Amino acid sequence: MLKVGGEVLILTHDALAAGVHFLPDADPADVAHKLVATNMSDLAAKGAVPVGVLLSYALGDDDARFLAGLAEALREYNVALLGGDTISHLAQQVVSLTAIGRASCAPVPSRGGAAVGDALWITGPVGAAMLGLEAIRAGNSEATASLAYRRPRALLAQGQALAPHVSAMMDVSDGLLLDAARMARASGVTLAIEAAAVPIATPEHRRGEALRWGDDYQLLFTMADDTPPPVAATRIGTALSGGISPLLLDGVGLDESGGLGYQHG
């Protein structure tokens, strides 16, 4: 966060690498769209209104497709390209974006504000991106089922509506369980999640995978127990006094070392 005059600016930076965050043969337009969406999701988690982005781009095999996808995504989120830089082609392409947003309320939500007794909510199902990647690997890269992985959506309007009411908020990028554990540690509470309450996009027998898979970009947030959220959401748990474990799943203690989601190297 950066205070400028009477406003608070939110700055975030995210990078995508071929073979890590997108498949090496992915449509460059999809890569551009995902790059913008992941940064917009960070702004959504702060309730911010996008102002502009700065692009760092390693030239690839089809730069025209990347630029087409970039233009489409910028229009979708009503955000301007303010500048950036390009470098020559790398063996492994890496693209990154810095996004700038304007805080829509004060205080700005963080992952560290959950209080004992708060209700834990999520804006939508998890596991859709996992199914999308599987569809691509099965040869259905253009199918609707792959969209959640290829072109995730940032929930900017939901984040702005939630910001004045939440005690803590973050987006689910690395897996619901892992991100919930991070929120719990930052807030000094234990988050107790009911597995069956979590909305999932997968068949029921894959619920455990859906809770650990990332790239869904739903908003995870806490609010006072007696306060209904102003957007569509599902209650999945409760904040308890901090204990040995930051996270309880159906009463069983979990921590970040237990394979809860995607861990960055």
Outline the structure in words.
Helices cover 26% and strands 28% of the residues. The protein has helices at residues 28-44, 63-76, 128-137, 147-150, 156-162, 176-187, 207-212, and strands spanning 2-4, 7-17, 48-58, 80-87, 94-103, 119-122, 168-171, 189-193, 219-223, 234-241, 247-249, 252-254. It starts with a strand and ends in an 11-residue tail after the last strand. It folds into 2 domains: 2-103, 2-Layer Sandwich (60s Ribosomal Protein L30, Chain: A); 119-257, Phosphoribosyl-aminoimidazole Synthetase, Chain A, domain 2 (Alpha-Beta Complex). It has 7 helices and 12 strands. Strand 11 and strand 12 form a beta hairpin. With 265 residues, the chain is an alpha+beta fold. Strands 7-9-6-10-8-11-12 form a 7-stranded mixed beta sheet, sandwiched between helices. Helix 1 packs parallel to helix 2.
Quick summary:
The chain has seven helices and twelve strands. The chain has 265 residues and is α+β, with helices and mostly antiparallel strands.
